[in-house]
Amino acid sequence: MTHDKIARRTFIAGASAAGVALSAPAVHAQQPVTITFRFNDPEAPQLRAALDEFERANPAIKVTMQRVSWADAQQQFLREAATGTAPDVAQLAFVWPRAFGGARALKPLDEFVRRGIGVRGWDDFVARDLAVGADGAIYGVPWTTDTFAIYYNKEMLSAAGVSAFPTDWEALRAASQAVQQRTGKSGWAFPAGSCGTPSIWFFLNYYWWGKGPGLVDRNPDGRFRISMTAQEIQDGFDYYNRYLQEGHNPRASLSVCLWGAPEVVEGMVAGNIAMCSVPDPVAIEIATKWQQRNPGRPLPFASAPHPAGPNGSKTHLGGRMLGMGSSTRYPEQAWKLIEFLNKPDPTFTRHYTNYTPAQLAALEARTWTPDLLGFPAQLRTARSWGAYGTGPVTIPFMWNAVGRAAGSAFIGEKTPAQSAQELHDALTRELARTQR
Amino acid sequence: MASHSTASAVPAPAVSGRRKRPPSERGFLFTALAPPFFLLICFYVYPTVFNVENSLTDLSLFGLRDGGEWIGLENYVELMTSPDFRRVVWNTVVWLTVVGVSVRIVLGLALAFLLNSATLKRWRLSTISRILLIVPWATPPVVAIIVWRWLLDPRVGAVNAALISLGIIDQPIAFLATAGWVWPAVITIITWNTLPLVTLTFMASLQSLPHELIEAAEIDGASKWQVMRYVYIPHLKPAIVIMVLMSTFWTFNNFIYIWLTTGAGPGTYTNVMATEIYIKAFIEGRLGYSSAAGVVMATIMTIFGLIYLRVIAERELKEEGEA
Fold first, then answer.
1. Which CATH superfamily is domain B74-322 in?
2. How many domains does chain A have?
3. ipTM
4. Spatial distance between the Cα atoms of A82 and A78, rounded to a whole number of angstroms
5. B interface toward A at CB cutoff 8 Å?
């Protein structure tokens, strides 16, 4: 009797276990897979709406959005990738995929890209060179593109006696000074502060690139060199320092670091600043806020490319990429999300509307409001980071070092000549260390 | 001799001063001590050894999966020969620590005397003053820094507005971006947020001082200065010694006040060791180098702690004990 009971119990237990085991895949298949998406821009609610739309179109996939500030995004992602906890899909700066691919933090996407991506395929994406690692594999898909242009208040420039927007660097400084002298307001109040990712890095490079070579260049033999002299570096420091010394960029700008800082946006909206150098999403933010405060009034803003030097008007081709964490357990689902986010409609038409897709088809189709016409003009002359991105001296190193050297010159901690020489020496040392 | 004869009369364990513990007691001690030792090894010894090991490599943020290559003392040589690092050490030791701690101790003492004074009690302001004193301490540093950044802002800050309206200045000052002002501004923020603990510690010590001592000194004809010099200060010495030691450790290692207030700028003007370690590790990606900087930082603090405890604290506390 007891023996029978045990046998029956054993049979029931075994049958139950087998049933659970057999039904597990079916249950698993019914449960949606949850993937993570790391998003660093301020437009979180808009992106969440896009992700909701993605989830409705793909009921078997749920997306959790994670937020990290851009300032911490790089190190956070690399540390997570090293321990296998990086997000499935991440928003990346244009210059990150190459280095991240080398660090094995991103999954190669060649296999997925071959299936087709975007409106007109992979060849239609801008900045594809930045998406490719040193090993030739694709580690990111360009998502949005932008560059900085000068966004200015026409009425303030007109009041300062400036009828046409300046096209060379000295004329720009003179216009900025005229604004201050004639109206008492600030001219080009660029953020001059020091931090890990200061805006002055961009403005100095625009000045240097327009006039001559960049900081780093590649030799014909494939090795890299510091291609600027200390004097050329100093010329850039001196140029921007004059804005501060002459007072048309107030010294308060020394405590502002980022291009889209509230001080810049609010200064433009309130009419206390005549000009700023920003990417188009920030210009749209300024225009939107101005219109909210001045309903019915015509927008006083316009945009123009940065001044030109012998090399023309040069800014950087910037933007965001999307990459897949190397440890993702759901590459197919992650790729579906990347594909979805790269479709101009609905992501860019309904949700992420302040940004331009990094595809030529979408760029050609984009309509620009009159105040933003300087941005497509600047995009046509923008350059890739080139040797900055492919060389051994990392952009974060140069970004931090240039910003701090400029800051030291601006506050008088060091003379511009001393600061420029020290920066040149630091770059030379870093190149020697990393290129050996 | 006396001790020798006493020792001969007493059984062996007392001679050596060490009693052999029964096995059960040893087992209990081992069981009681094992968990903290285990935790110490996991969370202190291992990370320290790991950090020292990293400091001898060229480990990079971009090479975490591969690990760094052994480069011996190269990172330390680079540190010691770098003029930038010398400046960083100077900022950390002199501005952040010596000036910062001194201001806190002096103001803490002054405030403790004020809050303990009979005048405040007479005007029934003691309780409200003490409650107000707690407010900065209860404010998280991040909040305190954001509030102070706005207060000191040259465009919309209340400090500049007040100074201009009082006619003290005619142009706003960028306190956090001007070489002459940035360190005083940073120290003001740190002091505001951390002064209450120092003050409360001194107040507690003051309140334990028997009033009869002060009365006796006054009856003996001691002036106010002499009462302060010979009664109050000796009584406060142990508290001062402890607060100097603790404040120095907290301040020297501090990262958040500098990073969130100035980002180690303008330029490198407020770059201290903690921010330098962060910049090298997480902006430039040089984890090996920043580990070396961390080892140097820990070494400086260890040396300071040992010397301080050995030379000053031991003497002061011993004198207090004898008294």
1. MetI-like (1.10.3720.10)
2. 2
3. 0.84
4. 6
5. 61-65, 153-155, 172, 174, 176-179, 263-269, 271, 279, 281-285
